[in-house]
Amino acid sequence: MDFVGAIKAGFSNYANFRGTASRPEYWYWTLFTVLASLISSSIEMVVPLVSISSLFSIATLIPSLAVSVRRLRDAGYSWTWLLSVLPGFVIFIVGIVGIALAAMSSGLLTDPSVLNNQEFLQSAAFQDFVASDPVIGSALLALGGFVLTGMASLVVTIFHIMPSKSYEQGNKRLKPQTPLI
């Protein structure tokens, strides 16, 4: 499959989570989404009123998930491996929310004179905030979640790289082709 064929297949199978996707189809689709995201972000820098990159991301979310599910099935893995990213992501979000709650409860962000100060990051109030136990704990939680998410993403990416498997090679997610008699 070529680059244009992968784009056509991605949009023609917009929400098709059945079947398989070859490695070229998956990686050409991924290349297309990355290149189009870069171009749309560049356009947004020039024309800031138009949110093209957000619209593009929303428009290609379901096809990207569908191609990914089909690719995992082709390599002999279950689509549920995509969910392995969620626990780390949830832990990361909990850590960030913890830092935000600590910032709101500390009153550090309520004083406009402190926020307008050029040396806010060197102020004693900010240094005390950063050194507090709740902020350190939340930051470590966010870091741990980030690492877990990265590790899960790496595993899923390795599964996407794996060659296609037939039913005879142990891919139980594909039904064998039955000959017509």
Q: In whole angstroms, how far apart are the ends?
A: 31 Å
Structural class designation:
mainly alpha
**Rg value:** 23 Å
Which series of helices and strands comes N to C?
A: HHHHHHH
Strand content: under 5%
Kindly report the average pLDDT value.
88
Number of domains: 2
Q: Rough shape?
A: elongated
Describe the structure in your own words.
The longest helix has 29 residues, at 133-161. The model has no long low-confidence stretch (mean pLDDT 88). α1 packs across α2 and α4 runs antiparallel to α7. The protein has helices at residues 3-12, 23-46, 52-75, 86-106, 112-115, 124-130, 133-161. Helices cover 66% and strands 0% of the residues. It is elongated. It is mostly helical and 181 residues long. It folds into two domains: 1-75; 78-162.
Key words describing this protein structure:
single chain; 181 residues; mainly alpha; 2 domains; 66% helix
Précis, in short:
It contains seven helices and no strands. The chain is mainly α and 181 residues long.
Per-chain topology:
Elements: H1 3-12, H2 23-46, H3 52-75, H4 86-106, H5 112-115, H6 124-130, H7 133-161
